[in-house]
Amino acid sequence: MPERRDLFExxxxxxxxxxxxxxxxxxxxxxxxxxxxxxxxDEFDKSKSLLYHHYDSKDALLVDFLSFMLERMEGTxxxxxxxxxxxxxxxxxxxxxxxxIDGDRQDFNRAMTELRAxxxxxxxxxxxxxxxxxxxxxxxxxxxxxxxxxxxxxDVDTEQVASMLVTIIQGATFQATTSTEPDLEAVxxxxxxxxxxxxxxxxx
Length: 204
Hints:
Elements: H1 15-30, H2 37-42, H3 49-54, H4 58-74, H5 85-101, H6 106-118, H7 123-149, H8 158-178, H9 184-199
Helix pairs in contact: 1-4, 1-6, 4-7, 5-7, 5-8, 5-9, 6-8, 7-8
């Protein structure tokens, strides 16, 4: 299992990070439907007036939160532990799957599923989630292109493969938060099988 890296410092000094941590904690505790600025403030160690100074609504804060999480989550994936592209993919998959099934992140994952559902009728959420999706697809593309350059991977359509892999992970996340019997081990096994049968060249 990959090394666990915390998303936040225990007591962040930076005001934005402290607000984001309070939002993370409040989302994990209450979910989107019962989330309020007041409940975020209850998790915030600094003056609650700072919340209203920086954000004029709960949803404005949450859109910024999604952007922040994009920045922060990237730094928690220990891709530098491997040079070979196939190992980097496996590290990434291991990290994501372990985060999905990690007990202390289940409430947060459910809240994020609720947030994504708001994208169906909220343009700001839709735009931010789309940006996050494009970013992660691009990160996977970079690994795939490196694998081709290293002679490890077949010359696949990296854009198409990256889109498919990110969609699988998103589906696994959705299932893990909306089903009582998510089969994440099967998802992880098939991701490995895809690397072996579709990406790796015979002598890699």
